[in-house]
Structure formats: structure tokens, C-alpha cells
Amino acid sequence: MSIEKDVVSRAIKGDGEAFAQLYGEHFDKIYRYVYLRLGNQAEAEDLTQEVFVKALEAIGSYKWRSLPFASWLFRIAHNQVIDYSRKESKAEKVALENDVASFDEPNPEVIAEREFEIEELVDNIKKLPPAQREVISLRFGAELSIAEVAKALGKSPGTIKALQYNGIVALRKITLGER
Amino acid sequence: MARKVEDILDNCLERMFKGESIEDCLKNYPERASELEPLLKASAAFIRKSAAIQPAPELKARTRSQLQELLYAKREKKREKIPIWHRKWAVAMTTVLVIAFAGIGIVVASTNALPDEPFYPIKLAAEQVRLSLTFSDMDKGRLNIQFAERRVEEIAEMARQGKNDKIPVLVEQVANHLDKVYLAEKTREIERKGPKVLVPPPSAPPPLPSDGGAEDYSVVGGYPEGLMIILNESRARSLNTLKGALEEAPLAAKPNLQQAIEDIKGDYDVTLFNLERVSSQ
Fold it and tell me: Which of A5, A67, A88, B170 yields a CA-CA distance of 20 to 30 A from B151?
């Protein structure tokens, strides 16, 4: 049994430390994915919390055979984003000031540059067609493999690779057009 | 048959995720290099920008606290269904088994074991046995603080040795121990008042106390006030230990250790805040 399978099966049985381990492993990636999809810190924070609460409630019914764990978790995140976007149809853009955790970054210019780059990336991703946006967010934000993205979205790996290719081409064109 | 450009692009991306350079990948596909290079350069920029999106440490600590609360409530529900003599029997059996398999000498020898050493599981098992045989919330809290600090010392040592891979797991274990410090009291509060999520404030963490002396877990004051004193001292010692390790750790270990310091600081602050709330109610 692989280490991840072992951790997941312990979490299914209610082992808190195992769930905490899965949480530690996936939290940043889920947050990054949700952030890229919504482009807003406060919404990304709320939704990321909700994803893990839902995962904890549902993990007892998770079956390894039908879906890799990362795909299962990101399917929850994907559904949360879809539900949220439906509710918030107006999708008002909120300024990204103070959106990025500053850690111990000493140089304000570096922070400003990083915030600008993130804002630009989020804006550009929003201009992609929904399917490409989803695949790009899962690949670059969450760093899921093609197989995991395919399972999470219920599509074939070939379709995901094509969406990824078209998404990168389109995103590059948008980025160059912005400059 | 020539490979599709989508497949080649994906192959290069996978290799880039693993740390290979664009040039390394292009060497394998010279006939497609001109087509692939701009896409891979753009992808590298997307990867770099995406990686800069990081959740605030407070959010991680807050979510973890919320999840621990849910888990604890779930576990308590389950425990209520198990007859008390079953539980006592399980504790007694665990103790006998650990001592039988490990021997008291090995248990003692395992005290300083690190996560990549053979005696480490014995160290953790012995800690679990100690926790199982401790019944008051105060003593359990005290032990959890002590074990959290042990994990911190292990993080410092692993970082000094440049062994990065175990650090995130150890950071989670520190958080787990600290969460347990106030969970018992919190559950009583939930039972008293109905479900309620305790979250830390967005600012104003408790002030950093002056540096503590030698490790001292003796009980000062009642519960939970006494634990807050011990926790404050432990916080100062832990942060000192980690900051000391940050100076000595190899360059490659520093980012992980810096992140660990932020996370652990947040975990201590959340626990102190929650204990403070419990004590003021």
C-alpha cells in the first residue's frame, strides 16, 4: 500500500492526524486553485475552509477505487466554486491589495511586483473559456497531473491535454496583448 | 507516427514541475523547439506566478482549529458508545504491549530519537501511552505542550541536518498537540451552549513573553489559566529554538523552516487566544 493510500485509509477510519496530514499536503494547492478561479482573497479563504469541512464530513464515504484522493478533493473544490459562482453571478472585481500573504518579504517593491503579477494572471485566466480556465487552474495552481485533472473533471486525459494546450496558447496571447 | 504537440507540451510541463529546465526538454524535441519554446516560457511564468499565491498562516491555523473541533466532536460521539471498561482495558493492553515489545530501556533510549531513526515510533507510542494514562485536562494539556515542544526540537534538528521532507508533517503534529490543549474544555463549552466555532481575531495576538528558562512544565495556577502560563513559556522557548536553527540550517532548508516558524507561531497564538476565551467565559 502506498504512503498516501495508507494515510487516506486511516483518515477514512477517523484518524485525526491522518486527516491533518492530508490537510497539510493539499491546503495550499486548494487555496491557490480557488484563488485562481475566483480572484479574490476573502472568497478564496472562505471557500477553502468550506472545502475541507465538506471533505471531513464526506471522507467516510470516499472509495479509493473510483477516484484518486486529490481528484476527489478537487472535485469538491470545483463543485464549491461552481455553486459559489452561480450564487455570485455579478462577480464584482475586488482590488487585490493586501491579498497576498507577505511573510517576511523585506522589499516593498518585490511585494508590489508580485501582487501585480498575480492580479494580472488572475485577470487573464478569467478571460479564458470556462473549460480551459478550469484546466489551467488545476494544472498550474493545484499542480495536479493530467490523470488527476481528468478524473476530477470526468473527462479523458486526451481532452485535458488539448484544453491545456489551447489554454496556454490563449493565455500567452492574452498576456502579450496586455503588455 | 509523430507525437501530438499537446502530448509533447505536457511531457515537458511534467518535467518542469519536477525541476528540469526548458532547455533540457527542448533537446529531446529539436524539430518542435521553435513551436514549443514560447509556450514553455509562458508556462514557466504561469507556474512562478501561481506559486506566489500563498494562504496566510492565520487562515491555515484557523481552518485547522475548526477541523480539529469537528474531529474531536465526532470522536467524542464515538467514544460515548464504547463502554468505559473497554476503554480502560485498551489503555492497559497498549501499555503492556509497548513495554513488552520495546522494553523499558529502549523506551528511555528513544527519547531523543529523530523522525528518521528506528526508535522514533517507540518514542511516539510511549507518548501516546502517557497521554492515555493521564486523566485530568490540566495534565493532558501540560503533556501536549511538552510533546509539541519535542516536535519543535525535532524540526530544528532535522532542519540543521538539511532534512526538509519531514518538517511539514512535524509542523502538523505540533498543531495537533496544541489543538488538544484546549479541545477538552471547548467540547464542554459546546455541550453547554451548543455548537460554536472559536476563531482567533484577525490581529492582536498575545504578546511574546520574556524568554523562559529551562523546560519546566510544573503546574502554576488553575485550569486553564495555569496552562496559559506554561503555553506562553513554551511559545518563547519554541520560537527561540527555531530561530536558532534558522541561523545554523543549510540554505536549502531555510524557506521550509521559515514557513514552519510562521505556522507554529500562529498555532501557539490561536491556542492562547482560544484558552483565553475559554477562561474569560
Answer: A5
